[in-house]
Amino acid sequence: MIIMRKIIRGVLFAGIAANLGGLAVQAQPKVSVWTQHNNNSRTGSNTSETVLKPGNINVRGFGKLFSYTLDDQTYSQPLYIPGLTMEVDGQVHNVVFVTTVNNTVYAWDADSDEANGGRPLWKVNLTPPQPARVPSADDMSALGACGYHYHDFAGNMGMVGTPVIDTDSNTLYVVSHIITGDKHVQRLHALDITNGKEKLKAREIEAKIKTIYGNVEFNPLLNNQRPALALVKGVIYIGWSSYCDWGPYHGWLMGYRTSDLSQVTAWSTTATGQEGGIWQSGQGVMADDKGNLYVVTGNGTSKGENYSESVVELTPDRGALQVSSFFTPNNWAFLNQKDLDFGSAGVIPIPDTTLIAGGGKEGMFYLIDASSRFRQLKLLQEFQAVWPSPGTATMHIHGSPVYYEAKSETKSETKAEAKSETSSETKSDKYIYLWGENDFLRAFKFINTDGSPHLKSTAVAVSSMRAPQILAPTPPGETPKGGMPGGFLSISSNGKEDGIIWALTVYACNANQHVEPGILYAFDASDFLGKNDVTAQLKELWNSKEYAVRDDVGYFAKFTYPTVANGKVYVAGWGTVPPHEWDKCAPQVVPSDRGELNVYGLLPSPLSAK
Amino acid sequence: MKLLRQQRPWLTWRRAWPALIAATTLFIPLLMSQSAAVVQRGGSSAPRYEVSDLGPIPMLASDVVPGLNSLGDTVIWRQDESLAFAPILISGHQQMPLKIPQGYQNGFAYSLNNKRNAVGWANTTLNPVDSFSVTHAFLFAHDQASDLGTLGGRWSRAYAINNRDMIVGISELANEQQRAFWYVDGKMSPLAPLPGGQSSVAFAVNDKGTVAGGSEVAHTNSAKVVVHAVLWRNSVPTDMGVLQPSGNSVAHAINNHDEAVGTADGLAGKTVFLYRNGRMLDLGIQRGRAFAINDKQQIVGTQQVGEDRHPHSLGFLWDHGNFYDLSNCLPKGSPYQIQEAFRINDAGQILGTGVFADQLHALLLTPVN
User: Fold this and answer.
1) I want to staple A110 with a disulfide (CB 3.0 to 4.6 A). Which of A96, A552, B36, B236 is the partner?
2) What does the pLDDT read at residue B369?
3) How does pLDDT run across A297-326, given as a tens digit for each residue?
4) What distance lies between CA A474 and its chain's CA centroid?
5) Which of residues 50-109 of B touch A (CB under 8 A)?
6) Do the Cβ atoms of B222 and A535 come within 8 Å?
7) Which residues of B are less than 8 Å from A390 in CB distance?
8) B6 contact residues in A (CB cutoff 8 A)
9) What percent of chain A has pLDDT over 70?
């Protein structure tokens, strides 16, 4: 054993020495985040993180390393590809990609803001020359959206959905939105990720479906490309919802071949009805290994061949998308009436099962068996998962759930549970984490030990703070009003150990139709405080307000998720919050055209700084 | 009527809760007009009440309401350290926990008669809104909780008990439809929906045995569920009608004169109705919801008010054409803001909730002569 240790030390020392001498080839990082929430299952989990551990995430050792300035707000999750040889300097870089609502795509060095002189490795703006321009919320208001007061976007609203990267061909696919005169145009682009150049001629998004009632057409003015793009078996799938339910509109899901951007399929959620937007607060379409797609839809018609307020399983069949099965809550009419979109977040699968899980604006969480092949997916369980603070707070689920399987450190909580657990299943605990608005972050335990899979509907652990933490002042006698939209989660772990939940939330007040301060949290995913209590507490490791001078994440970038890769955390922000406004609601007027990509990681030690 | 839109009533109250919340935060109608009949909001002629604070009450749902009998006894609920909900009977200064049946974790009592028998429901998971749990209607009486069973389905819920111990509520059938029930002499029986409807719910029963609630009706548009307020006399349903064609209505309470109150779709959105002598009248209380009516035709409920950015609710008393914001009927300088009024007895006592020090409290208002 001693000999072995010496050998290891020697190897390490040699490696360090070689590195110092500039001779060594850097070890290739393994993790890439090529699609929103890490994979087509949308688990939000990076289970190969070996650097960031609960033990080193604290204000002394972890914080913001640097940030990049963007030309506008971003609604997309940063994507990350390691080991790319970039055209700008011929050097190998780990690269992080991010888009803005100004139709700009950036490629930044993921490790150092000094690479390429601090400039992006490439930057491309996909708005054609004038008279083309980026559409804005003001344009929508002028046309009548939201009663002439459209504020879902603060300013520009070009690129919205997170792009997707084909790592086989090094191609990034993204949809731009422009306006020329009074004509709106949306285009699918294919960019070379080493230089930003368009590999193929951009494809204008068009679709028309014949129905017994006439043609149904895609409308680039009314259709909001909100969900992340998905790459499944050589096809880019793109979803659309609306702007503020301004219609008449239909939800759409279209497929384009990666090789030539030709349209493979165009499916409308409500071909003979109305609405049924696919938005999922930015979450991408989920896909299984067979290529089946799962989308969740919002308000609209839900009868016959119309699938609003539903989870819909779509199977590609000779090009076309066929609805193979679906689930519609029985109270869909009520959800519709109250604008409680079932599809305000996406669904995720529970690994090693045939189950999918998710919830919407009602704050209910659904566990659905996707193996049923009787047209309708079978509902196994539904429960109230979001419990907002007293008052008239909303309880929407916008941030999609994330899943983590942790090496078990806890014993069964009840005798019955212990009795039902098999020896193999006591080795790990399976959790789904969810942060609904005005509520705590909650960890729900998945139990599948007695042939009756379900989630324990009382959270096994919750955070000590709600989102938002700070509420808007209310007149005397009135209960405090809450704020949207809750937390946006990602998970990092080293297999079943060192699990960390990374949560980006609004910090103060209501980020619905307003720019408000944000906060980034890190929680231990499985080592809870007070394990013997009915509900334990999630251990907060760090947050960006703890040492805000260095770490503040800025204004909250709505509907964006943290990206964790190879020891760093990439988080979007909408610009710097002035220090005197760190701990309060934003003023009525806030700059609406700022964007930042914040890079967090382990801080250089004093020793290495010397 | 929104309660009847669901097919699984073990979720009914939680369906109503988010609806109320959504209505107060997101989609407030622009108009707050009231009918000419609704004229007063306090003032010198307003009734006056003294307040008995029954303690903090955790918010649940707009249709999980505490109970009040003619003697001034109340049933409310509390949440203990384990987060479980338990019913409490309060009589004067005495607070008596009602026994939760073995194997059940949460219990709620909705209604209380003059014998101090209460009804409600209990469920088996700590989360009171979980389809994985078993939820049954219960009678809480004589320090016992009696399981009322179901109509063949998985769940049931009791909403009201009269002074003859007749109980009404809702249950799932074996075919998973939901059906109003009445429970007499140890037997639960279904109350038929209106012709063409599949589901029904019973919210109230008076001492004559007349039951009030709602029922689906036949409708031509399969995408829309239409519910009408209904009275059952000797289990025969009578359609109370609606205020607007194709609109919905549902009755929440009934007095001993067979006068019922509830909520219906009016010209400018939801409004409160009074049903008497075979006619449904719009009381002009926009965005209102009536919870109770006593034999003196006094009605209490809640109304959503305020602008979109600062909506809030108030508890109201409607007394023969006069509308009173109950917060204006409290002693001068009272720290309470009445948010909801759930029950009123013939002595004029009102049971509701109000905000005190940013916390919701159950409050018993007693008229001051």
Assistant:
1) A96
2) 74
3) 999 998 888 999 999 999 998 878 999 999
4) 32
5) 58-59, 81-83
6) no
7) 58-59, 359-360
8) 330-331, 334
9) 90
Measured between CB atoms, does B225 come within 8 Å of chain A? yes
CA distance B76 to chain A (A): 17
Min Cα separation B150/chain A (Å): 20
Of A254, A351, A253, A350, give the one whose Cα is nearest residue A310. A253
* CA-to-CA separations, A313 to A117, A322, B48, in angstroms, rounded: 47, 8, 60
Contacts of B172 (CB under 8 A, 6+ apart): B8, B9, B10, B150, B151, B152, B153, B154, B155, B156, B178, B179
B246 to chain A, any CB pair closer than 8 A? The answer is no
* Those residues with Cβ within 8 angstroms of residue A208's Cβ, 6 or more apart along the chain or in another chain: A215, A216, A217, A218, A266
Which of chain A's residues have a Cβ under 8 Å away from the Cβ of B130?
Answer: 381-384, 457
Residues of chain A with pLDDT under 50: 1-26, 28, 414-416, 419-425, 608-610
Nearest to A343, CA basis, from A277, A404, A408, A292: A277
Place B307 in a pLDDT band, splitting at 50, 70 and 90: low
Q: Which residues have a Cβ under 8 Å from the Cβ of A346 and sit 6 or more positions away?
A: A42, A227, A280, A281, A283, A284, A285, A286, A296, A358, A400
Q: Report cis status (omega within 30 of 0) of the bond before A468.
A: yes
Chain centroid to CA A408: 27
Asked whether the predicted pLDDT for residue B245 surpasses 80, the reply is yes
Determine contact: A511 vs chain B, CB below 8 A: no
CB count within 10 Å of CB A60 equals 9
Q: pLDDT by residue (tens digit) across A69-127?
A: 999 999 999 999 999 999 999 999 999 999 999 999 999 999 999 999 999 999 999 99
Determine if the peptide bond prior to A131 is cis (ω within 30°).
Answer: yes
Fold of B2-367: Methylamine Dehydrogenase; Chain H (2.130.10)
What does the pLDDT average to over B162-181?
95
Tokens of A299: 């308000």
* Interface contacts (A, B; CB < 8 Å): 114
Torsion angle (degrees, nearest 10) of CA B298, B302, B308, B311: 120
| Identity of the residue in A303, A331, A474 whose CB atom sits nearest the CB atom of B15 | A331
Task: Look up tokens 């037997």; give the residue.
Answer: B187
Residue of A nearest to B355 (CA): A477
Provide the residue ranges of all domains of chain B, joining segments of one domain with +. Answer: 2-367
pLDDT exceeds 80 at position B40: no
| Mutation to test the B interface, candidates A327, A330, A340, A389, most B Cβ within 10 Å | A330
Which of A148, A151, A303, A334 has the most B C-beta neighbours within 10 Å, making it the best mutation to test the interface with B? A334
pLDDT at B39: 44
User: Does residue B309 register a pLDDT over 50?
Assistant: no
Nearest residue, CB atoms, A394 vs list B15, B25, B222: B25
pLDDT value at residue B34: 30
Domains of chain A: 37-609 (2.130.10.10)
Query: Touching check for A301 and chain B: CB below 8 Å?
Result: yes
- With cut-offs at 50, 70 and 90, classify the pLDDT of residue B35: very low
For residue B59, what is the nearest residue in chain A, using CA coordinates? A390
